[in-house]
Structure to design on (289 residues):
């Protein structure tokens, strides 16, 4: 089996997917990683599948044309829950999401057989977590909750307050009182602040961070396909839209240093430059941007 020099691509609407970047860095120090964040179209959790596909397709063209990316992680619960089957058909390299790794880990640890999922509206509506969990065990119960307000606070770096801390505590207590002993961070913005959830949980409920399990799945995929890298361990970031609010998060990432922070190149930003997208709902996004 040979080695490949192409990087791993990672995408999210904002900073949430950095949880996966951190986990990949720990597990695969030699790999090069290119991360794309998309504050221009944040929040993804309020978009339809068709809209999301139009929004993220330019990222795949960019990854494949500019970097010969060998694998892409959709480090976003919403994209993973809604777009993955389409992407796996369209994209000529493996595309890995966060839903399945999170589900497998939660099923392995739950004892009450009741698993909670905190995610976006798009993810909850897709029913993907529920379907996967119920497919594995018919006697498993799933409680799902969308929490877009808290995702916004995390994206803006405004979550670390006594008020949010007690809201998170109350939410976790409510899930526990409904029988859940395990809660999946079904949105990567939550997985990025797993430590905050753990502190608020105070051991009353187990927190599953899918980022680590996702990184393990990436490693397995590289091993199996013989594409483990021999890169320099570089991490690059491209941002579509306003990036001034990113600096707080870069300071808190343990062990990840970005070699460069760039704007996503306009020539690839076909979502906003062309309006011939096949999906009617996309014309709406294009018009409003
Ligand atoms: N981090 C994303 C997710 O996991 C998206 C949050 C959002 O853009 O709504 O779903």
């Amino acid at each position: 089996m040979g080695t490949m020099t192409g990087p791993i691509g990672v995408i999210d609407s904002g900073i949430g997917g950095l949880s996966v970047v951190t986990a990949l860095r720990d597990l695969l120090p030699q790999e090069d990683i290119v991360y794309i964040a998309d504050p221009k179209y944040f929040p993804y959790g309020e978009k339809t599948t068709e809209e999301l596909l139009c929004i993220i397709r330019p990222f795949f063209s960019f990854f494949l044309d500019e970097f010969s990316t060998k694998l892409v992680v959709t480090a976003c619960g919403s994209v993973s829950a809604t777009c993955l089957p389409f992407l796996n058909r369209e994209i000529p390299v493996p595309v890995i999401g966060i839903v399945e790794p999170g589900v497998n880990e939660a099923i392995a640890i739950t004892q009450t057989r009741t698993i909670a999922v905190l995610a976006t509206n798009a993810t909850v509506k897709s029913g993907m977590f529920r379907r996967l969990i119920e497919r594995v065990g018919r006697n498993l119960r799933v409680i799902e909750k969308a929490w877009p307000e808290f995702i916004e606070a995390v994206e803006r770096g405004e979550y670390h307050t006594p008020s949010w801390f007690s809201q998170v505590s109350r939410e976790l207590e409510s899930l526990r009182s409904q029988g859940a002993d395990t809660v999946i961070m079904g949105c990567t913005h939550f997985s990025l602040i797993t430590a905050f959830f753990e502190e608020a949980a105070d051991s009353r409920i187990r927190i599953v961070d899918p980022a680590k399990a996702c990184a393990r799945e990436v490693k397995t995929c590289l091993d199996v396909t013989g594409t483990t890298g021999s890169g320099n361990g570089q991490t690059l970031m491209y941002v579509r839209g306003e990036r001034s609010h990113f600096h707080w998060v870069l300071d808190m990432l343990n062990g990840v240093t970005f070699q460069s922070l760039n704007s996503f190149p306009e020539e690839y930003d076909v979502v906003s430059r062309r309006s011939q997208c096949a999906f009617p709902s996309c014309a709406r996004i294009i018009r409003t941007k």
